[in-house]
Design brief:
With 320 residues, the chain is mainly α. Among the domains are: 108 residues, no CATH class; 44 residues, no CATH class. 58% of the residues lie in helices and 4% in strands. The protein contains 16 helices and four strands. A two-stranded antiparallel sheet has the order 1-2. The two termini are 31 Å apart.
């Protein structure tokens, strides 16, 4: 059932007809499946969500298509999709990723991390077309953050100083991506774009999970799910440390793009172990972001054992 629904969904655009939001259907279906949803539930969610979607235009590419020369050209998405569909089919998922991911990962902020997330789900599902969609999305909406300066400061200090510097600034735009671009173009950003030299991917994962618990913010949620996505793709990279550095700056920009971000103390929750949580709460949710957040936190908790991810799962899954 899942593969059938994914194949049908690959005829839809990467953006919805509702305010041009990113299309989350394939990722949510894969997350639901991994969380144990029945075929009936997958079909029901698909039917509900598909009403928001619009058809994908078809395209082809010239044999001499210079893919590296057109990064960031949004209008070439379908051209990139045709290109990567052929390349993934020729090379296979693993080799295609190894060939292209190191060039594309500096632009991981593409569409506020949605390109990165879709690519990772394609890898999780071993679905060639979903991988092609992710690579095409990363390429056409390539969003590079200026290089950061390596610092001996801790992650918390870097974030605190950056937030203080932008505390009086009001970000403008019509989407998370537009808000992020506004921050990148601000004169002050280069001074706060610091990379903690001692930080690791597990620590970044824990950091953003805690930040989500402290804020409950929608944009910070995407830092949690995109960090899971990055971890999924790291094994295919020749220079994972540069990928982590690029991701850190992109996530910093995302947090700075939030107006009136309120950071509270970590909540005091009654923490139940994984086996006591009711994953049907997420499976039966109509909120695609909740479904994907629960899946990401489950996978990150299984990988790292961070209490913060378990706390998020408890907050989202304990029966009322």
């Amino acid at each position: 059932m899942l593969e059938t629904l994914l194949a049908k969904g690959q005829h839809y655009d990467i953006f919805t007809k509702v305010n041009n939001f990113s299309n989350h259907l394939p990722m949510t279906l894969i997350a639901l499946n991994r969380l144990g949803a029945s075929d009936k539930r997958l079909q029901a969610f698909n039917d509900y969500y598909a009403t928001k979607l619009k058809p994908l235009e078809s395209a082809s590419f010239a044999t001499e298509f210079a893919w590296e020369q057109h990064l960031g050209e949004n209008e070439l998405f379908t051209t990139y999709l045709a290109f990567y569909t052929q390349r993934v089919n020729e090379l296979g998922i693993n080799e295609a990723l190894r060939k292209y991911i190191d060039t594309l990962i500096p632009g991981c902020a593409a569409s506020a991390f949605h390109a990165l997330i879709r690519l990772s789900y394609g890898v999780i599902q071993s679905n060639k077309t979903e991988v092609a969609f992710g690579l095409a999305h990363l390429s056409a909406f390539y969003f590079v953050i200026p290089d950061s300066t390596t610092s001996h400061l801790s992650a918390q200090t870097v974030f605190s100083q950056a937030l203080a510097s932008f505390s009086q600034y009001r970000v403008t735009g019509s989407s998370i991506s537009a808000f992020m671009l506004d921050i990148v173009n601000h004169d002050q950003f280069l001074m706060v774009n610091l990379y903690p030299d001692s930080i690791s991917l597990p620590e970044i994962s824990d950091f953003f999970a805690k930040l989500y618990l402290q804020t409950g913010d929608f944009t910070v949620l995407h830092s949690v799910t995109s960090c899971h996505a990055l971890r999924t793709l790291i094994p295919f990279m020749q220079q994972p440390e540069l990928a982590i550095k690029s991701y850190w700056s992109a996530a910093l920009v995302a947090v700075l793009s939030i107006n009136d971000l309120e950071i509270k103390k970590l909540p005091e929750l009654s923490i139940e172990p994984i086996e006591n949580l009711d994953f049907n709460v997420a499976i039966n949710s109509a909120d695609d972001h909740v479904i994907k957040l629960v899946f990401s936190c489950l996978e990150e908790y299984k990988q790292f054992g961070h209490r913060a991810h378990l706390m998020i799962l408890n907050a989202k899954l304990q029966s009322k």
